[in-house]
Protein 1
Amino acid sequence: MTEPNPYMLDEAGQALVNKHIAMTPEIRSDDECRHYAQELIRMSEGQTCSTPVEARAMAIAVLARMLQYDGLVETLETMEAPSSL
């Protein structure tokens, strides 16, 4: 049996995601994108449904900002895989 998805949030969780997206600046460069990607990997590692919703909402917000960055694919292609993978 698969574990439940920790990123499926209720209405209150979605409101937290929206709050974090508003507080997270847009990504303006490949360096910033790499930084966000590394932080996303670090912060989401080991998150489960019992992880506080605030932390899970923050991870979703960071991912949302990364997806808005035009150079995302090219930047991720130049990154090395994290040592934890």
Protein 2
Amino acid sequence: MQTVRDASGDRYLLVKRSAESSRVRDPNTGEERYLPNEELSFEGGEAPLSVAAAAVSEPVRRVVSAAHDDRSLGLLVELADRGPLPVVELLGAYDLCESDLHGLLSEFRAAGLVAETTVHGERGYDATETTRRAVASLRGGSEGDERSGSDEDSAVNGDGRENAAEDGNGNGNENEN
């Protein structure tokens, strides 16, 4: 596979080339179409798989690269949802030994996904904004949403209680728990 650009500079992946036209795929949408060869410049500089990966947002690519399994992804999700958390709480709450936890946190720090912080006077970690955007995107929300996957009609307070969304007049109506 090879990368090509059309006359307007848009980048495509070359699927099939014939004498007069080529079938190309838009890496952002996956849509395939035929374009005349005279409108294409054939490039060799960019790796086709890197071009295909560029269709996924940078925060999501970073999380996918750093999270090797469900446990590591789960740790990032927990920090995005509940952080910042002290190391002592992380060790007590999850099925990770101290060595595994510190190994994961070191990898995540190097990738810019978590930051060391102080929580109630103890060393802890918090998810970075990059991680929060990636987790929201992976859950199906937009990257601007810190939390997604919840009903549009309700929101969750920091203490876990749900609030009803604003009514048509801009008034928030709390549910009693």
